[in-house]
Every structure is written in C-alpha cells, then in structure tokens.
Description:
There is one protein chain. The protein has eight helices and seven strands. The model has no long low-confidence stretch (mean pLDDT about 95). It has a seven-stranded parallel β-sheet, sandwiched between helices. The protein is globular, with a radius of gyration of 17 Å. By secondary structure, the protein is of the alpha/beta class. The protein has helices at about 10-25, 35-45, 65-75, 100-130, 140-145, 150-170, 195-200, 210-225; strands at about 5, 25-30, 55, 80-85, 130-135, 175-180, 235. Helix content is about 45%, strand content about 15%. It has one domain: NAD(P)-binding Rossmann-like Domain (Rossmann fold), CATH 3.40.50. The structure holds NADP nicotinamide-adenine-dinucleotide phosphate.
Amino acid sequence: xxxxxxxxxxxxxxxxxxxxLVEAGYxxxxxxxxxxxxxxxxxxxxxxxxxxxxxxxxxxxDIDGIAALVKQLRAEFGKVYGLVNNAAVGTSGILSNARVxxxxxxxxxxxxxxxxxxxFLLRSMMAGGGGRIVNVSSIVGFTGYSGxxxxxxxxxxxxxxxxxxxxxxxxxxxxxxxxxxxxxDTEMTSEMEQSHKDxxxxxxxxxxMPEVIDVANAVEFLMGEKARNITGIVLTVxxxxxx
Length: 243
Ligand SMILES: NC(=O)c1ccc[n+]([C@@H]2O[C@H](COP(=O)([O-])OP(=O)(O)OC[C@H]3O[C@@H](n4cnc5c(N)ncnc54)[C@H](OP(=O)(O)O)[C@@H]3O)[C@@H](O)[C@H]2O)c1
C-alpha cells in the first residue's frame, strides 16, 4: 500500500486530505504537534480492519529535527511514496506592526520546513522509483490580500518551489504540484467575520466558498495514477473566486 505523509493532518484541511487519501486506498501518516479528537475519531473508522491512518507528533518548526523524523518514519513505515506539505500558520496583521521574530517563524514553518521535509523524503521516493509531492499554497499567493503579506509571501514561495522542483525530479518519476485553495471554513479562518465570508462567497463565480472536501479531492487526483503526466501545476480550488 502506498504511504503518504500529510503534514498538519490533525485538523482542518490536512485532516480532510488524510481521510480522503485513506478512503482512496493509501496509508497515511499525519503529522502535527498534537492529535485532536477529530483525528482520533477518523482513526477509529480508518483503522477498524488494518492500520491505515497513523499519527506522529512533531513540531515542524524544528528544522534541525526533520532529518531524524524522516529516518524514524522510514524505519517504522518503509518507503514513503507521497508527501502533502499542508501544515502552515496563517498569522494576519499589518506588516508595520508585525514583530520580526513572528515574521521569521511564519516563513520558517510555511516555507523552510516543507522544503527541508521534501528534501529528505525525496530520497525515499527516489529509492522507490517514483513519487508525488503536493504543496498546499493559497490563492492569496497570487492575488494578494491586505493583512496577509507575510503569509502570502510564503504561499507564493511554495508555487516557485513546486515549479522548479518539478523540473528537477521529473526524470526520476516524481511529480510535484500545488493546490491553491480559496478561503475555507477552518480554524485558520475562525476569526474572520461571517459577513466577510458572505462577501467572498457573493463575489465568487459559483456564489459560495470551496469546502475542505473539494481541496482534498484535488489532492487525491494529483496523488493518483490519473495525474501521472501532470507536474509543476497550481490547481486552484476556490469556487471561482479568482476568475
Ligand atoms: N483555511 C483557509 O482558508 C486556507 C485557504 C487557503 C490555503 N490554506 C492552507 O491550507 C493549509 C491548512 O490550513 P487549515 O486552514 O487547515 O489550518 P489549521 O486548521 O490551522 O490547521 C493547521 C494544521 O497544521 C498543524 N501545524 C501548525 N503548526 C505546526 C507545527 N509547528 N508543526 C507541525 N504541525 C503544525 C496544526 O496542528 P498543531 O497546531 O497541533 O501542530 C494543524 O494540523 C495551510 O497550508 C493553509 O495555508 C488554508
């Protein structure tokens, strides 16, 4: 069974992706700092017959610890076929008021950490003769959004990373793609006012916001055989917010 690592798989979009991939027949290792009751409930369903949805606690801002994490995952689970770089923080606020340490830690978690994790897991994919990386970006990485300058910079960085790495590892049978969700109803956007969400929905072609399952379906597609000749793309899932 193909093994996929999903970072930030304890809640929100990451959990939705993990569950969708398990349903599609993959074995998933979800990573976050701590588990949640939603993840435990999903594990109870997924692991009824055989263990298919695992959780390993790790703080991805510990860049120096990522090599050891990957070593431990490989010892425990064997070859890893896929990686979904989903974990991120969405700290908002005007740039002139932001603390420098806060800017650095957001860039570290949202950009440096997925790049370093990809670097180490790529070796496992090479050994397995192929693989898949899906980087979770955001529409704000190309549209911009007031109050999200640092976050948007990290999400734009993931798009450049996706395109260059796709060129670098394509000959090894590894695809690298990105999904760019529009605003989703998760903990990350919990402080956003309902009226604001209503405005986003009203201004979108489909007059609604995308849901976690829509993005999870897109990730499943990019992970699968049907996407074998798709690499270096950004798949926008935003109910037409940016058309
Ligand atoms: N929500 C949106 O509107 C939206 C729109 C576009 C793109 N996105 C992107 O979608 C992805 C998921 O967002 P979400 O809305 O699902 O966010 P979320 O609900 O806040 O979940 C974030 C996940 O990342 C994990 N995480 C955070 N810091 C971590 C750390 N230091 N080490 C390990 N794991 C960490 C969290 O677990 P712990 O806190 O326990 O570590 C959690 O599992 C992100 O890349 C985000 O940029 C979201």
